[in-house]
Design goal:
Layout (H helix, E strand, L loop, with lengths): L2 H10 L1 H7 L7 H17 L15 H5 L3 E2 L16 E6 L2 E2 L10 E5 H7 L1 E2 L2 E2 H19 L2 H7 L5 E5 L9 E6 L7 E11 L4 E7 L6 E11 L4 E8 L2 E14 L4 E8 L2 E12 L5 E10 L4 E10 L5 E10 L4 E10 L6 E11 L5 E10 L4 E10 L3 H9 L4 H17 L5 H20 L5
Parallel strand pairs: 1-9, 2-8, 7-9, 8-10, 9-11, 10-12, 11-13, 12-14, 13-15, 14-16, 15-17, 16-18, 17-19, 18-20, 19-21, 20-22
Antiparallel strand pairs: 2-3, 4-7, 5-6
């Protein structure tokens, strides 16, 4: 960026920095680390439409008016138990230990607690910050300066470790509550989730999407040797809200990462998922479902990088769109030099229910080895008239037949979820949304 642009970015976010006032809290080393993050953010800035990876997501509104800091308000509502889950509860991004349901099979500490205590699981705060900086260096390529802004505002979120060899008997649900109703406010959260060697865990995460809120959530998963993790992430729809989600994953030898994103869309929803296979024989499976109506917008960027041999990866996106909604799936596979025996595939499938809806697919393969298998494909279609005719001939109404076909398209996504509880909760969340989209469709 030029000097003028740097000065504009500095001025545009000065009020947010002043209101957050984080430099006055925590040890001196943390204040210096935050200051370096701010300087990096000023240099890199917010991604623009000139950035090919952000061609379909216009963040000009993000910088049009000054953003304000969300002051945390403790929750006055007890967190319901049950549903067969462990629960991490957050109020305005602040971890509420007293309202959470925890287990002896994992350890958890908030960033605020870590800043007071200084260490977690044998690592000092400074060591963890240095590692977070290294992770951000690669994330910045696809997520831009947003990752530096999140680091500069680091205060909310948790660090969690699923202990070695433990296999959790129920999923961990991350539950966010937003108490504010102000306009143009920012709420950044960073969660660092470690699944130690041989452990197995399932996560159910629902982001925030509220009018006037810029929600910036970064979840980093460290999946150690032989560990297995399944993540089901839901993004609710809202007009007037901005959702900027970042998921980074580091996989070691023979580890497995299974990620599922169900996204309802909003004024602007952008998800960036970056997976690094740093150990051989690792397995990665990322799937997304985009639902859209009216003018809702969903954009997802996925990059799976194979740095070790004999790994496998799969990326698959589905879109069910109505009205003038739009989805974008940009998937990339990187196979590093001389990394052999890798199998990677990408697929995008879209079902358009109106003439104004639009699905964009942008596959990329960057391969520097010759003994690999890699392929990609994309399909765009409408409700199959033959399927509709068949169902109507069996006594279903037109509306019932259309809903059944659309639901079958969605069920292919939910059927891929391994954890029974996470699957049930997602199906309950999706069902009324799919019905609404199909019921409001305009014939092509």
């Amino acid at each position: 960026m030029g000097a003028n642009q740097i000065d504009q970015t500095r001025a545009g976010f000065s009020e947010l920095r002043r209101e957050a006032d984080l430099e006055s809290r925590g040890p001196k080393e943390l204040a210096e680390w935050r200051d370096r993050a701010w300087e990096s953010f000023y240099r890199v800035g917010i991604p623009t439409l000139k950035n090919e990876n952000w061609h379909y997501s216009d963040l000009r509104r993000f910088v049009k008016e000054p953003l304000h800091w969300v002051k945390a308000e403790p929750s006055r509502v007890a967190s319901p138990t049950g549903d067969g889950v462990y629960k991490l509860t957050f109020s305005d991004g602040v971890f509420e230990r007293g309202l959470s349901t925890l287990s002896a099979d994992f350890e958890v500490i908030s960033w605020q607690e870590l800043m007071a205590e200084g260490t977690f699981a044998g690592q000092s705060l400074n060591e963890l910050l240095d590692e977070l900086t290294q992770i951000s260096e690669t994330a910045r390529i696809d997520h831009g300066g947003i990752v530096d802004l999140q680091r500069a505002l680091l205060e909310r979120g948790v660090l969690l470790r699923v202990l070695q060899g433990r296999k959790l008997d129920r999923p961990i649900q991350i539950e966010y509550r937003y108490t504010g109703r102000s306009e143009n406010v920012a709420l950044p959260v960073i969660n660092w989730l470690v699944i130690e060697a041989g452990a197995e865990a399932h996560f159910s995460v629902e982001g925030l999407n509220s009018h006037g809120l810029t929600w910036a959530e970064w979840n980093h998963f460290s999946v150690e040797e032989g560990a297995k993790v399944e993540v089901v992430r839901k993004v609710p729809g809202a007009q007037g809200g901005i959702n900027l989600g970042l998921v980074t994953v580091s996989q070691e030898l023979k580890s497995e990462f299974c990620g599922r994103l169900a996204c309802e869309g909003g004024e602007l929803v952008r998800e960036t998922w970056l997976v690094n296979q740093n150990g051989s024989e690792a397995k990665t499976d990322v799937q997304a479902l985009f639902l859209g109506t009216e003018t809702q917008h969903s954009d997802m960027r996925v990059v799976v990088s194979h740095f070790c041999e004999s790994g496998t990866s799969s990326q698959k996106a589905r879109s069910l769109l109505n009205g003038e909604s739009r989805s974008t799936f940009s998937g990339k596979v990187v196979i590093a030099r001389d990394v052999q025996m890798v199998a990677a595939k990408q697929l995008s499938q879209s079902l358009l229910l109106s003439s104004g809806s639009q699905a964009n697919a942008k596959p990329e393969l960057e391969i520097y080895a010759d003994n690999v298998k890699a392929n990609h494909g994309a399909t765009v279609g409408q409700l199959d008239p033959e399927e509709i005719f068949y169902l109507r001939s069996r006594g279903l109404s037109l509306a019932q037949a259309e809903l059944m076909v659309a639901q079958g398209f969605v069920n292919d996504f939910t059927a891929s979820i391994e954890d029974v509880t996470s699957k049930r909760l997602l199906e309950q969340w999706l069902s009324p949304k799919v019905e609404s989209i199909v019921a409001g469709r305009r014939p092509l």
